[in-house]
Structure formats: structure tokens, C-alpha cells
Design goal:
Layout: E1 3-7, H1 13-22, E2 25-29, H2 38-44, E3 50-53, H3 61-67, E4 73-76, H4 86-91, E5 95-97, H5 104-119, H6 122-131, E6 151-155, H7 159-168, E7 175-179, H8 185-188, E8 194-195, H9 198-204, E9 207-210, H10 224-227, E10 235-238, H11 247-255, E11 261-264, E12 284-286, H12 295-313
Parallel strand pairs: 1-2, 1-3, 3-4, 4-5, 6-7, 6-9, 7-8, 9-10, 10-11, 11-12
Bound molecules: glyoxylic acid (2 copies).
Length: 324
Amino acid sequence: TVSRVYVTRQIPPEGLEILRKSGQVQFELWNSDDPVPREELLKKVKGVDGLLCVLTEKIDAELLDAAGPNLKVLSTMSVGFDHLSQPELKKRGIRVGYTPEVLTDAVAELTVALLLTTSRRLIEATHEAKTGGWGTWRTLWLCGYELANSTVGILGLGRIGIAIAERLKPFKVKKFIYTDVAPRPELAEIIQAEYVSMDELAKQSDFLAVCCALTPETQGICNHNLFSKMKNTAIFINTSRGGVVNQEDLYEALSTGQIAGAGLDVTTPEPLPTNHPLFTLKNCVILPHIASASYTTRNAMSALAANNLLAGLRGEPMPKELKL
Ligand code: GLV
Ligand code: GLV
């Protein structure tokens, strides 16, 4: 039997090809690069068996009620799942697919790029070069902080945190430390990372990379309490979710010199309004949520999202299923 599916975005071609060739689904697509308006989405999901979404769609009780009882499978083209109401999905017996692992390399690579951009002040530097600030060579002008002999802290050690550490190691990092809800010795061993408390993570890190999922437990955990314990030479990097950070506290930490700099690929909200105070700070580098944005990875994510959806609709285990 052919299942009815709604796809909330123009996803990369590999995923669409898989859906088309399967002969298993009849799908309708929001054929745009921009999000489907909520009202439209609520209409379109009515009666579908499966839904393929991206991280801009809030999947909550209202939406699931609008879809109705046919909906059995939700597939999100993202590793993050904070846009999904897990209790509501679970209550309705809806299975959920997501896209971990295929994006680990791309996210780790971008995180390293963002870290170096922030610590070596590359955005400021190109701006100075272009706009006449480059008067002469100066001894301490545009100096930043180096990775060699540094301590790198990872907040939330998972695949992505490991992949970041593996890439940073050749820069002669002295020590990796991490914190998480509990030690993860089998992962930590890969990079010889030491488990420390949140306090110690803040105190010891020269570079602190946030790599945890956004959950009720991690909401706002990067706040004044954390920043005030950090070194004022420390660089803070977030490529997970904006909600993990208290942005007012981060602004304070950056503008008062409590910490040296921050590189953010994620913010609250997204997009961050162009008049947001964080944009006024030279020591804050903000990217528009592009960590997984390589052609290879975005295609792999779309393919995995399609395969998760199809397997779920067949009642089979999904290649990557989220345990609710
Ligand atoms: C991107 O942020 C993702 O969750 O895949
Ligand atoms: C995400 O895929 C993680 O495990 O860090």
C-alpha cells in the first residue's frame, strides 16, 4: 500500500530521489527554500501517514492533532530534536527518525573553523585590512589565543565532541576535559579526556566547546554562573543549540571582558535580529546555523531522513531511530 507523506521543505536531491524511487509513498512537498507557514502546515498534515520535517517546524500537540491518527512516522532531517515534543509523540505511538553521525564530520570541521576564527580574530582582521585599519605591522595588534599547550573543555561528550577533539589534537592541545550528566569512559578514552565537574570545566578551559543536546536539563546552563568562573582569556564556542546559552549573561561576559571571545553557530532566536547587542561586539563571531552545511552532508542527511521515513512506514527498524 502507498503511504501519504508530507515533506515540509525542498530537501536536497538525494532524499527526494529515494522517496520517488521507492514507489512506497505518495508525497507532497512544500517546494520552497523557506519554511512552510504554520497555517499551511496544519492544513497539509491532515490525514498523512508520515511526515518529513526540518528543524524549523515545531512538532507539538497542536500539529499532531491536526495530522490525526494516521500519522505513524515522523522523520526529521536533523540530529537535534528539541523542536519535537517527545511526550506528545510517545503518547500517540509515533516513531521518530533523525540524522546523527552523517553530519559529525561536517559539524566538527565547522566547529574548528569557528574556534580558530574567534580565537585568532579573523573577522576583525579582514575588516581592518579592508577598511584602512592596517596602518602598519604592530607588535600586539590583533593578537589572540593559541591552541598549542591549551586545555580544551567539552560540554556534553558525544560523537561530535570526540570528532572536534580529534581534529584539535594535532594543534598540540595539552589536555582535554569534559563534563556530562555522567562520565563516558569508553568515549573519553578515544581522546584521553578527563571527566570534571561543571565548575572545573569553567575554571580550567582555555577553549570551551558546547556539544550537548538542548533538553530541559541543559536549557540555559551556560549562564553567569559558568562565565564568571571562566578565565578572561577563554574562548567559548557553541555549535549545538542557542537555548543552552543565556545570551544576556553571555553579552555581559563578553562586553566586560569576563571571557575573551565567543563563536556561535546557533542563537536564540534564529535568525538573530540584526539589531541584537551581540552583533555589536567585536569579540563575538556569529554564524547563521551552518555547521552541517556541506553539500555531501546535507545530501546524506536528506537520504537518511528519507530512509528513516520509508523504513518506519514499512514497520521496520529505522536506520536511525530516536528512542522516545
Ligand atoms: C542541525 O542543527 C541539526 O540538528 O541537524
Ligand atoms: C551527536 O550526534 C553527538 O552524539 O554528539
